[in-house]
Fold:
Amino acid sequence: MFSLILQASPTTTNALLGLVLNKMTDGNPLEELRHDIDRIDDTLQELLWQRAAVVEKIRAYKHKQRAFRRGGFFRPSREIEILRRLLRRHQGRFPKLGIVEIWRTIIASHLAHQEHFSLAVYRPKTKDGCWELAREHYGSIVPMTAESSVTSVLKKVSERTASAGVLPVPRKKEDAWWRHLAGRFEDLQIVAGLPFVDFENGEGKTQALLVAPIPAEPSSKDRSFFMVVTVGGIGPARLAAAFAGEKIKSRSVFTWRGSASARQRFSLIEAEGFFGESDPVLLRVQKRLGAQAKRVTILGSYAVPLDGGKRQQGRKPSRVRT
Structure:
């Protein structure tokens, strides 16, 4: 019997082995169920082989089109759309978070292979919040380097020694790294938020943003970051009103001023929706703010996280001075 199995084709061999194993496990339901698990595992593995083959074809096509020069492999908006679609069709008792973690591992594995993807992560001595988020999201396969300052993160990404940088969501003076995206590091944009799941669940929990030398892309639901440079006193309420006049719902306003004597202020406005770098709304907002507004620009966007839950009260409009 086994000699016939060995001489058969792979497909026939699998079928014959299945019959033999079923015969051997007659009267033992547990063994039969375990055999079913093995069969399903084999199928999953074979599907992963097929997925990898398709990804390789995409990689070859993008190289031919030279899309890799424009960051064509790293597309966080596409990544979250994959997860959104899978969760919409999900059924059964397998936990949704498990689905997210499995596919994040698959996506990160392909990304690391396609682009030699790596991260520069802000990791001061006092806490590891961004590091833990990045490791949780990208797993152990993506190389990560720890940087003690936000400037060194931006520098590594700008110099292309890291594919993307992970930085804290701005909440205080030390987090005002975003102002450099319209100056020294204007080649970088905010392209994603971490974590992809429950981004807003739990006041005080670490949240992070990814910056990369690629343009942000829209997904089915996004939030964007505007930076407004003003001279003189334009407070959060007036800024929010200017955006509301253009039917843009602002979620938070964060203002930074270099010194007590400096007249120039930098304000970060997080708003609902996706906006591109050349969107005409930028000039309209600047016009609404008047002569005190010297510049309104887009710093990027991120896809609204999966199952974000209710908004917490920890991110109120604020002003920060030094």
